[in-house]
Write a structure and sequence with these properties.
Low-confidence stretches: 1-11, 36-58
CATH class of the largest domain: Alpha Beta
Main location: membrane
Keywords: Membrane, Signal, Transmembrane, Transmembrane helix
Protein name: OmpA family protein
Number of domains: 4
Helix content: 40-55%
Radius of gyration: 31 Å
InterPro entries: OMP_bac, OmpA-like, OmpA-like_sf, SsuA/THI5
Strand order of the largest sheet: 2-1-3-10-4-11
Pfam family, one: OmpA
Largest sheet: 6 strands, mixed
CATH superfamily of the largest domain: Periplasmic binding protein-like II
């Protein structure tokens, strides 16, 4: 008769089997190539689990406590996203580690949806552009919006693409142009037309819902030109034979200013947090501007946060903007008395006038001073050093006059400046005309070279008129350099005398039109 095993005997046998399995497994791991491979794989998995992705580190509680920032698919907000170590509220965020509060970025590409989200407090800070703000500020009046700070300037992110045969702004007259109305694209087009001496009524606007839609219409060859975003500009050139970029914000460098608005009541309740948010954002922007390594890290963060973006796409998006520093904000918002470039107040006021005249800015448009909240910028006194300095002027080399004289102008604006017979010095009225008709354009297109051409009628000898016209053009340049602090090397001075008439010299009216100064934007 066979005896039955006792419970204790079963326990001992189980223990022996487990011990055997343990030692066999240990032997395999330590003494065979298969086991060593498994061991290395296990260590990699453990390492990955101990360093979760930014998305995995985000948590519900952090998101609920976060300052929510509404943005669009754009590279110009990366200063804050970089400092935040991602788009989501996460435990690695420097905002959280250094200032004690989380931040979350929400992508809201649909403009009406983004505005509704802001009204309902789904986002606290909302993207805008100072140039297009006059078209919507009256509609937001019930929420008392104020501008908090500037994030970037568009520097190549916006472009005007044109079909074959269009080589200048003058060639756009009577043409169909696809553009998203009351957006930065629209602002850029209006500036471009004015620089070329045209009005909005001189072209046929084909209204689009977005810059992406404008690109599609251009690629289908339904229009002659379109205002698009990068990288759609490259796609347009690829899909439409003979198409070219007429101008981009790489040259029209101080027109589209990305900024953030917030409700005044929310700002007053969160004043200290907003000051720290601004400070951290500016530190992030300065670090990216100063280091290619940091820029590559920023591109990785941007690619992770934007749908369909590779790191290469993200790097291109960052390179298509000027990430604004604290010094740039001091300049733009009129807090540096020595700054001579485009200011927020000038840009806002100019575009208010333009959009009102075209019927796009309706209702009561508040003055700039009532909608600018300066506390965050003024509080950042610790942001010193060259990395936080404002952007300097572009350095122009002296142009070869013969080459520059024949280079085709992208835009030409004819301005009548009166001189006494035989004289070339500017009087006060002439200076006023230059200020009114051209200075803001020169500042807006601050990366463009400018050709100043003096012209006369045919009264007198040709040789003396050529000499006189060049002296008059030089007087204009001297004024722009001495009063508005523009780079002398930026200008090309030409004296045409009577040889570039735009009207007949047989009448006084025609001769008056020929006695003019031409302001021309030309390529490098």
């Amino acid at each position: 008769m066979t005896s039955r095993l006792t419970p204790f005997s079963k326990f001992l046998m189980t223990l022996a089997i487990l011990a055997g399995i343990f030692f066999l497994g240990r032997y395999v791991l330590n003494n065979t190539s298969f086991g060593k491979g498994l061991k290395e794989k296990s260590q990699e998995v453990g390492s990955n689990n101990s360093n979760p992705t930014r998305d995995e580190e985000s948590s519900g509680p952090l998101s609920k406590e976060a300052i929510n920032v509404g943005v669009v698919t754009w590279g110009g907000y990366i200063g804050g996203q970089y400092f935040n170590e991602g788009f989501k509220a996460n435990s690695q965020s420097r905002f959280l580690k250094e200032y004690g509060f989380p931040v979350e970025f929400k992508i809201l590409d649909d403009v009406p949806v983004s505005r509704e989200a802001w009204k309902k407090d789904a986002v606290n800070l909302l993207w805008c552009t100072i140039d297009a703000l006059p078209t919507e500020i009256a509609g937001l009046a019930d929420y008392d919006p104020v501008v908090v700070f500037q994030a970037d300037w568009s520097r190549g992110g916006d472009a005007i693409v044109v079909r074959r045969g269009i080589n200048s702004v003058a060639d756009l007259k009577g043409k169909k142009i696809a553009v998203a109305e009351m957006t930065p694209s629209h602002s850029f087009l209006l500036w471009m037309l004015e620089a070329g001496g045209l009005k909005a009524s001189d072209v046929e606007i084909i209204k689009q819902g977005s810059a992406i839609d404008a690109a599609q219409v251009f690629k289908s060859q339904q229009v002659d030109a379109a205002v698009v975003w990068s990288p759609d500009d490259v796609a347009c050139l690829k899909d439409v034979p003979g198409a070219r970029i007429l101008e981009s914000t790489r040259s029209a460098s101080n027109i589209i200013a990305d900024a953030f608005i917030a409700k005044r009541a929310w700002l007053e309740k969160n004043q200290e947090k907003v000051q720290k948010l601004y400070q951290g954002w500016m530190i992030g922007a300065a670090e990216i501007n100063a280091s290619e390594t940091n820029k590559k890290k920023a591109a990785k963060i941007l690619a992770e946060g934007l749908t369909g973006f590779s790191e290469e796409d993200a790097l291109g998006a960052i390179n298509n903007v000027r990430l604004c520093t604290h010094g740039d904000n001091l300049n733009f918002f009129g807090l540096n008395a020595d700054y001579k470039g485009v200011s927020a107040e000038q840009l806002y006021s100019r575009m208010t006038s333009l959009y009102k005249g075209l019927g796009y800015a309706e209702g009561k448009i508040p003055s700039w001073r009532t909608i600018f909240y300066s506390d965050a910028i003024k509080s950042a006194t610790a942001l010193t050093g060259t990395e936080h300095a404002g952007e300097g002027q572009k350095v122009f080399t002296k142009a070869n006059e013969n080459e520059a004289k024949t280079k085709e102008a992208i835009a030409t604006k004819h301005v009548s400046i009166s001189f006494r017979t035989g004289e070339f010095l500017l009087d006060e009225n002439s200076k006023y005309i230059i200020d009114k008709e051209f200075v803001e354009i020169a500042k807006g297109f601050s990366n463009s070279r400018i050709r100043i051409e003096g012209n006369t009628d045919n009264v007198g000898s040709e040789a003396s008129n050529i000499l006189l016209s060049k002296k008059r053009a030089q007087s204009v340049v001297d004024y722009l350099v001495n009063t508005h602090k523009m780079s002398r090397n930026r200008f090309v001075v030409i004296g045409n005398g009577p040889n570039k008439s735009i009207a007949t010299n047989d009448t006084e009216e025609g001769r008056a039109k020929n006695r003019r100064t031409d302001f021309e934007l030309i390529g490098e």
